[in-house]
Amino acid sequence: MDCPVCGCAVDDGDLDRHVNEHLDQEQIERDEEFARAQLVGNPLDTGSSSQQQQQQQEQFVAARPSSSRDGCPWEVPAVIASQERDSFVPVEEGFVDLLRKCVVAEQQRPSAYALTSFIDHYQSTSHDLGWGCGWRNIQMLSSHLLARDEAYRKALFGGAGFVPTIAALQQWLEIAWSKGFDSDGAEHFNGAIYGSQKWIGTTECAALLRLFGVRARIVDFKALTRTTGGKVPSKRVAKRPGARQQNDSERGIVQHWNAHCDSCGMYPIRGPRFSSSKQQDCDLCFVCFKNQPGRSHEFERIEKPSPKACGGDFEDYNHQRLVDWVWNYYTEEDRDHVENRQPLVIISRRPPLYFQHQGHSRTIVGIQRRRKLGGPEEAFLLVLDPSQRTEELVKALRAKTGWQKLIKRGVHTLKRAAYQVCHIDPGIAQGKELENLKNLSSTSYLY
Description:
Elements: H1 15-39, H2 50-62, H3 66-69, H4 76-82, H5 95-105, E1 111-116, H6 133-148, H7 150-155, H8 166-178, H9 183-188, H10 202-210, E2 214-222, E3 255-256, E4 269-270, E5 274-275, E6 280-281, H11 283-289, E7 299-300, H12 320-331, E8 335-339, E9 344-348, E10 353-357, E11 360-371, E12 377-384, H13 390-399, H14 403-407, E13 408-410, E14 418-428, H15 431-436, E15 442-446
Parallel strand pairs: 1-9, 2-15
Antiparallel strand pairs: 1-11, 2-14, 3-4, 5-6, 5-7, 8-9, 10-11, 10-14, 11-12, 12-13
Helix pairs in contact: 8-10
């Protein structure tokens, strides 16, 4: 059968995988474009001139109280009173219900799906496109918590009962820092983020939610070896007789220009930087010294890519461990109901997952596993991207066509070496447990 994208002849059993590789490469290219836009300070599709953006930014920062600019914490009652509900495109049928109907109608080979029970999609606007994905993912995660549990409605955002704007979330994060949540992160950002376009990640998401007693946890997934399946085709790495050797930045190896490894002295650190209270190591030294007394791994802060690293090549890594973890997260407990038919659909009460890789973050709302004819099982993450327009997503879901391109991401498309997930354990922490939540730590899987 011919591929509808490139026209190449493909075996029937491999057609789905082949087409998905085309579609997922488009997503990788979009992620790279977001990273480039952030690095040059030029958000995509802004719809306004750079002068107008500058005026908006100046007005945004000017609204910050002088006491906060001097490093004093925000007054919580004032933030509660001033925060506003952020806008989003409501879906009458419910976003997850539309997705459930699509997976039931897909009629593919024997499959099983696990979905979160509720979410609102918060898309990036002209103001935050290119840097605000982390805040939008926090909003999507918060929409689930507020909709599913009265305890979260009373605790989150001072009991406001709604998802606030990015500006309010930035204020809450500064309050969290001022109260001792994630002191390393506070130092990293100098305790100030309100009115800025700084990127955030899983650690900031966890610190913000922990302020309200939410049991936000971080999980690191790190592939230390590549598979033998080869690389994504790239003309820039093709070797020719007499061709000069490419340097690290040309090959797309991420380098942290302002950091060196405290163990081996490598400067700049290549690959992810693993930080503890006293050490920051490259990935190799972290593996070598991880069991040494006094060297405790806390979390990996996924850095913003350097300008020379943007647009690099993507290696093949086997992140099956990450996929298995996501499946277990949604299926082990807290199920709303199970539709025992083909395909099997599990609706879980577990919240969505904040999904971070270098340069971008998205939200995992479910997972599919299916048996491949004559081959091993395949897995697909179901992912919502803040950069996508809600209207486009809803239109595809209602039509039950084209939604796979927007939401499904095969495990073979996980081309980064490191990923992070922020997930929520049930309940609200109080007393000593809440105090303990101030210190961020993570569970790490190295494979």
